[in-house]
Fold each of these.
Amino acid sequence: MDCVFCRIVAGTIPATVVKRSDDAVAFRDLDPRAPSHVLVIPTRHVPAVRSARGAEGEQLLGRLMTFAADVASELGLDIGGYRIVTNTGPDAGQSVDHLHLHVLGGRKLGWPPG
Ligand code: AMP
């Protein structure tokens, strides 16, 4: 499978990794939309949140969410606040088919997203 985020996990293409665990990696988005914009992905290829189901999906999503909150803390975002968002499918604008959480912070964020 030719997946750009699997390549980042494998280290075969460069990324600015900010945190890594056995099952998750956080790295800076190439096209940041906020002063802090990090992507949190599972090391295992899962296409999107809609494919993370059942007990295994529940465990994976829980771990990714707490990992993302840890990343946000380490980036100094707890006081100002931040947003965690995942795009799923074409209407949401998902452009990489490997589940990822966007962690955005460092400025006032508009609501709702466009
Ligand atoms: P989405 O549109 O929700 O699927 O988000 C995909 C994100 O991945 C976008 O914000 C892209 O800027 C980002 N992205 C794509 N390729 C890379 C890469 N090689 N390194 C870092 N971020 C990337």
Amino acid sequence: MYPIQRNRRLRSSESIRQMVREHHLRPQDFIVPLFVIEGHNTKEQIPSMPGYFRMTLDLLTDEVNELWNLGLRSVLIFVKVPDAKKDNKGTEALNPEGLMQQAVQTIKSITPNMVVMTDVALDPYSNYGHDGIVENGKILNDETVAVLGEMALSHAQAGADIVAPSDMMDGRIGHIRQRLEDENFPDTGIMSYSAKYASSFYGPFRDALDSAPGFGDKKTYQMDFANRFDALTESEKDIAEGADILMVKPGIAYLDIVYELSQKLPIPIAVYQVSGEYAMLKAAAEKGWLDYENVMLEQLIAFKRSGARLIASYFAKEAVSLIQ
Ligand code: PBG
């Protein structure tokens, strides 16, 4: 007998496909990474990230207004620090008039309802290009955590809604939460990069910020990409220490981790589609080897399907323009 169930029935027209479609992209799903530089009226294209720019504070005004008008509701700020301001302890990271602090204030003054997230890690400020303080070739954990606590506090004082520690030191979420509570910032959120892998997909980002490690690699703090167990234990600890949102990073190669965390853990999971992922698609599209827009949307939907509630992506602006 002929099959009673024919799966193709629900695929037979665009209307019926729309009716049974499970996942959608909305502007509010995205977190837009922004790269900020010192100076005036300057917008520089990042060579390994075609179509993506670093910009000065004055140019942020137009950019953030445009994002807001597209329905985007959150940005994640990174700053490029001149070499002269880098040292081993991230001193400049605590400067209340530093570039990050000014960027937060600028964005909040233009678009007060934009959720402003800040990167908390020492690498852009480190003369070694590492996420922590270096001593005898090692990355010190607890000494770094102490600085990260003050850095997060300084971002909160500047007006950040959510601080996003991307450093992978042990115990930093608990310490940051405590510092925020102590200093009366109980409403400042923490988005923890809880499952951040030691990945070679971060190359273009390190070009963007001139933050590549000066020696060695980041494998003593970022996770071994051959492992799953770490993702779960790191994330459970971060929830216990006070994280509000967890992040998996990179994206497409780690959908199993996104799925597992979103199934098992009771708080929103974000995923970071990182610079190398952006660069790969741009490069393939430049060669005419892939359908740029459709591959982009397919990857973004894959994040939603695997359970991500939020997506940090360099495609955010283009994707939102396409879906509207
Ligand atoms: C550093 C940081 C990195 C990224 C975000 N925060 C790079 C790294 O860990 O070396 C990568 C983002 C991207 O590749 O898009 N704390």
